[in-house]
Design a protein that fits this description.
Layout: H1 3-16, E1 21-25, H2 31-40, E2 44-48, H3 52-59, H4 70-77, E3 82-85, E4 96-99, H5 114-126, E5 132-135, H6 143-153, E6 164-167, E7 186-189, H7 193-206, E8 210-213, H8 216-246, H9 251-258, H10 283-291, H11 298-326, E9 334-338, H12 353-363, E10 367-371, H13 397-401, E11 405-408, H14 417-423, E12 427-429, H15 433-436, E13 444-446
Parallel strand pairs: 1-2, 1-4, 2-3, 4-5, 5-6, 7-8, 9-10, 9-11, 11-12, 12-13
Helix pairs in contact: 1-7, 5-6, 8-11, 11-12
């Protein structure tokens, strides 16, 4: 048996027998659920994170993500099956290393692959024959081959022979109780058959369905396509909302009626803007890469313009509603924003339009507080540093009555909408939260 076949066959056997040690770099909203899925499948998991406090919390079995209970964490830690560390020198230990680090964009909407590059460098320092590396972070087609592979091969080890490399896009939907890491089909691509076979074997042990594609680039493009599809369709309904509103037509009623068609239509819903780690960011990875091929991505860029412009439109609508209700407009008003998270029922503020709304409201001369049952305090962010440390206010009748307007940005289920309906002077609802609950406040404006 050749040395190349020995590396492949040995790792394949350990994966099939669930004897391999899985390493996961990045223990956030993607990496931690993946670690738990690996644990549930019977693998031992070693997680890596640059945040020592997060590492300590995970090793203590504490709840670090709102929808993953402490009991789940503690069960995963039993018998040493899950361990977290900030010691990246231990990257030599795992048989498989899954990269789950952020891929943000710059202010100019260019890809920021610094986390991916730094992780590849860290892996390269301890890389040994027989290891499989899988990039899960969303990125442009070609990243695995053009960015990660050269770093790994600088060691003298060759992908497909000594070591193995694949791409499998994360498909997490935080807070979605209908789908878990285990039940969402996993796309896997690699540029050589050995790497692809090993990655497929790994995920087959953990995920209910694995879909293999011909290359890492095809897998990278798959994730971008999914999120671009959502971005463009959300932009479409945001634009329709503005048009139908001018005509006196309720876009929410129209969408619900259109959704009764059993074919040829998928419902998407408007809102105050896009948030989260995927949809506001990922499309611009393709627009950036397309320029290398002298290609224009007009649909994608137009959708981005519409979606990023929604917070200003919402604030304009809020100002108009205040002017009609109180005759004093936004300047000097007190506004209560409902929801700081980017989507309902999660504690994640990444790219949240709520943070943009707060800043825009205050730029217009109003005071803005927020209430969020999942976020006690706004964390530090690069884009909204001035908001860090602000705390969620409690909801009660007296507090609600003290505000000139309540703006619904994130429609968490845990919010007391009945209280708001009964006591708010004015409600501006960007999520159709009250109509969906059969509530009809006296002063309600949809925006």
């Amino acid at each position: 048996m050749s040395q190349d076949a020995s590396h492949f066959d040995g790792l394949l056997a350990r994966l099939a027998g669930r004897q391999a040690l899985i390493g996961i770099v990045g223990l956030g909203y993607v990496g931690l659920p993946l670690a738990l899925a690996g644990r549930e499948a019977g693998f031992r998991v070693l997680g890596f994170d640059i945040n020592p406090a997060r590492v300590a919390s995970i090793n203590a079995g504490e709840q670090v993500i709102s929808y993953i209970g402490a009991e789940v964490m503690q069960a995963a830690l039993k018998d040493g099956g899950l361990e977290a560390t900030d010691d990246f020198a231990r990257l030599s230990e795992p048989d498989v290393i899954l990269i789950c680090v952020p891929t943000p964009i710059t202010k100019n909407r260019d890809p920021d692959l610094s986390y991916v590059a730094a992780t590849a460098e860290a892996i390269g320092k301890t890389l040994r024959p027989g290891q499989l590396v899988v990039l899960e972070s969303t990125t442009w087609p070609g990243t695995t081959r053009e960015i990660v592979q050269p770093v790994l091969e600088r060691t003298g080890l060759k992908v497909g022979a000594d070591i193995f490399l694949a791409f499998s896009p994360e498909r997490e939907d935080p807070g979605n109780a209908n789908f878990t890491t285990k039940t969402i089909p996993k796309v896997v691509g690699a540029d050589d058959p050995h790497s692809r076979d090993l990655a497929v074997k790994l995920y087959e042990q953990m995920i209910s369905k694995v879909v293999a594609v011909s290359s890492a680039a095809a897998a990278e493009a798959t994730k971008l396509t999914e999120n671009i599809f959502r971005s463009i369709n959300i932009a479409l309904v945001n634009e329709l909302k503005l048009v139908y509103d001018a005509m006196g037509v309720d876009v929410w009623e129209v969408i619900d009626a259109a959704a009764t068609k059993p074919f040829g239509y998928l419902p998407f819903y408007p809102g105050p803007g896009l948030g989260g780690h995927c949809i506001p960011i990922d499309p611009f990875y393709l627009t950036w890469k397309a320029r290398e091929y002298d290609m224009e991505t007009r649909f994608i860029e137009l959708a981005g313009q519409i979606n990023t412009g929604m917070p200003r439109i919402v604030v304009d609508r809020l100002a108009e509603a205040l002017n009609q209700a109180t005759s004093k407009g936004l300047k000097g008003a007190r506004v209560l924003l409902i929801g700081a998270a980017y989507k309902k029922n999660v504690d994640d503020t990444r790219e949240s339009p709520s943070l943009v709304l707060m800043e825009l409201i205050e730029q217009r001369g109003a005071a803005c507080d927020f209430h969020d049952p999942h976020i006690a305090e706004i964390p530090e962010t690069r884009e909204h540093a001035a908001l860090a440390g602000r705390r969620s206010v409690a909801l009660d009748a007296g507090a609600v009555q003290a505000y000139d307007a309540v703006l619904i940005s994130t429609d968490h289920d845990a919010v007391d909408y009945g209280l708001l309906a009964d006591h708010a002077r004015l409600i501006v609802d960007t999520r159709n939260a009250f109509a969906r609950r059969g509530l009809a406040p006296a002063m309600l404006v949809k925006a």
